[in-house]
Write a structure and sequence with these properties.
Layout lengths: L13 H17 L4 E6 L5 H9 L3 E4 L1 E2 L2 H14 L8 E2 L14 E5 L7 H14 L5 E6 L1 E2 L7 H13 L6 E2 H9 L3 E9 L3 E8 L9
């Protein structure tokens, strides 16, 4: 039975209008010329619609683990009518198995700090599973560097996140890069973004080959 959605299911986030164009400028440059982009934690679905419209040469696969978010994504998709925007998948980044076997790129926007650390661990493990050699993992959000916040506003944001959930919080860039490296993902670009955020671009490396003993 086909699910129906009301326009009231289409959620909106004020931050999307502020950050979508700077993010898109990076995605234009780092994403492949063709293939499927798996977006993790797509939230309202507004980014998915905007990027799918701006990047018609790519197939955009949104996902989320929250039912309300999935309804919002589906509604925005229906309204947009975009043929390269797929129906959202229920996907928990922390799970050991994802409902996707292969993707040419993985995108996660504002997820790492608004989720437990185990979710980032799952994200890296999942990206290792689904990305081909040279595939891109793109992260956007706020990070600490060298153990310190990059701006007072980020420090206040971090405190607010931890008040809301002790398992949330702005992560150390070095810890994220080290975790990625343990899953064959190398940080190749760190790009300053507006409002003291960063774009981080990782690439999937060739698995190590060991000689028989």
């Amino acid at each position: 039975m086909m699910k129906t959605f009301s326009s009231r299911d289409a959620l909106a986030s004020p931050s999307v209008a502020r950050n979508r164009d700077p993010i898109l400028a990076v995605l234009h440059r780092v994403l492949p010329p063709a293939g499927t982009v798996l977006e993790i934690a797509s939230g309202t679905g507004e980014h998915a619609v905007y990027f799918a419209a701006a990047l018609p040469h790519l197939t955009w696969q949104p996902s989320d683990q929250d039912e309300q978010a999935l309804r919002s994504i589906a509604t925005h998709r229906s309204i947009s009518g975009l043929s390269n925007l797929l129906a959202p998948l229920a996907l928990d980044a922390a799970a050991p198995d994802w409902p996707v076997e292969q993707a040419d790129a993985v995108v996660a926007i504002n997820m790492v700090h608004i989720s437990p650390w185990r979710t980032t661990q799952g994200l890296m493990a999942g990206a290792e599973r689904v990305l081909p050699r040279g595939g891109v993992l793109y992260l956007y959000g706020a990070y600490r560097e060298n153990g310190t916040h990059t701006a007072p506003s980020n420090e206040a944001f971090d405190a607010d996140l931890r008040r809301r959930n002790p398992e949330w919080g702005i992560r150390d860039l070095e810890a994220v890069a080290e975790l990625a490296g343990s899953h064959g993902l190398t940080l190749v670009e760190r790009i300053p973004m507006p409002a003291n955020n960063l774009s981080l671009v990782f690439r999937r490396q060739e698995p190590a080959k060991f000689a028989d003993s």
